[in-house]
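hey m, so remember when u said the C-alpha cells were messed up on ur end? i reran from scratch. heres the input so u can diff it against urs
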Amino acid sequence: MAHIAARVLGGVFVVMGIFMTVAVWGSCQRDQRIVREGLTAEGTVVKKMFLAGTDDSDYVLIHAFTPVGGTTRLEHRRNISSKLWKWLRVGDRIQVLHAPGEPPRRSPPERQRHVHPGLLDDGGASSSAPSWEC
C-alpha cells in the first residue's frame, strides 16, 4: 500500500513540475513578445514600498501611466530589484513597455534618463536600461 501511495505522490509531483515549467515558459514567452512588439508610454513613480517577510523581502514600485492610445491613467504595482528600488525616486519619469490591448501585463519599468551601470545585472557591460532574459 505504501508503495502505491509513493508512486501516486511521485506522479503528482511530476505533473505539478510539468505544469509549472509550462506556465513559466509561457509567461517568459509573453514577456519577450511584449519586449519585441510592445508600446512604450511615459510613466511616473508614484510610490515605493519595502515589504519585509520572515524569509525574504520584496521591493515594490507603484507607477502610473497612460497606455498608448488610451485616456485613462493606470496604476501598476511591480516587484523590482533592490538596486533599482534604491535608485528610483518618487516622481521620477520612467518608460513603461506594455502589450497593445493588454495594459495589465507590463514589463519592468525603465528610467528615461541614463541608467547607472551598477543597476544592471550584467555587471555594467551594457549601457542600456535594465533588462532581463528568460
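this time it looks ok to me. The first helix runs from residue 2 to 37. if urs says something different then somethings off w ur setup not the seq
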